[in-house]
Amino acid sequence: MLKSLYVKNYRNLKDFKIKRLEQVNLITGMNNTGKSSVLEAVSIYAAKGDIEHIFQLLKRRGECYELSDKGSSAETNIKSLSSLFTNRDLKFDNSNSISIGEYETDLFGGSILLDETMSLRFVKYADERQDDGQGRTFRRKILQAEDLEAQNEDYKIGFEIKKGRNSSLFLPERERYFPYAFRHKIENLNQFQYVNTGGIDRGINGMLFDNITLTEKESFVIESLKIIEPSTERIAFVEKNSKERTAVIKLSDNPDILPLLSMGDGMNRILTIILAMVNASDGYLLIDEFENGLHYSVQKKLWKLIFKLAQKLNVQVFATTHSNDCIYGFGNTLNDPENSVTGKLIRLDNEEGIVEEVEFSVDELETAEKHNIEIR
Q: Is 5-47+187-370 assigned to CATH 3.40.50.300?
């Protein structure tokens, strides 16, 4: 579990810190303050910088650029990857690298990044020939400024992904236009699940359900659907055609098997969230715009279940919201005398391009709800 968060040079998060994180964290703030960027940064950390996941994030924002007739795959991939950086800069010094990880404060008030920090940066590299005794081989050498000045070496541009002492080098010129290469897969099941703001991905939901069928986790999914439809008995995913599976539901008061899509947006949103959560044991659940498709009366009950499952499955939750109803439902659950799970509301403020956190205590949340104080 992340106990703190430091993000440097990722999108609009130039030098962003959250001093203390809890088991369940709700992030609010005005538009363009960086709420989704925080979720993305945590997902990159959880995915250990997986390059396919990074390109999936870019694709969601429309930042996977198509290869033009005159362009090269290197130019296209570099343009896409530069979107991750503050001001979309293509620079090669360490001060411009993206950093994501935990931090501690030193005696002088400075920030010390802990081990396992994730680092992303553009580098210049050269292919070198090396004799291994059995014939020549090639190795790739990342070039420093002195290498270029002293040897006037030709170089290529690479994208270095580093976590702790482990690093890998992505070669933009050797990779095809990435979105066409995406495979329909479950992302890092044992590390995190990411629930987007958009529609339901039935392909992913079907695979997630297969993973927990006939286990205790299936009962949590049914419990969640009963929040809206108490007569829910079972669900299943059936083949609609050779390329698509869709969810169906059996209700105790109806002999027919019904398409879950016919039950409304709320049922399908809850299914997506809880399927993701039960597949994120010992990892992270990330939810963008929690309230989407959910009536305010449902949100408190869903938060109660999420707090319960966060503890039972050891999942750290990060969610974003624009909704006061969502915040009040979260605060109500957090302040429930029967709740033993820690939680935190974080508001992001953007002052002249600097994004900072504003922390709210449990008591402040309770006061805000009682007096209808605006805290979004």
A: yes
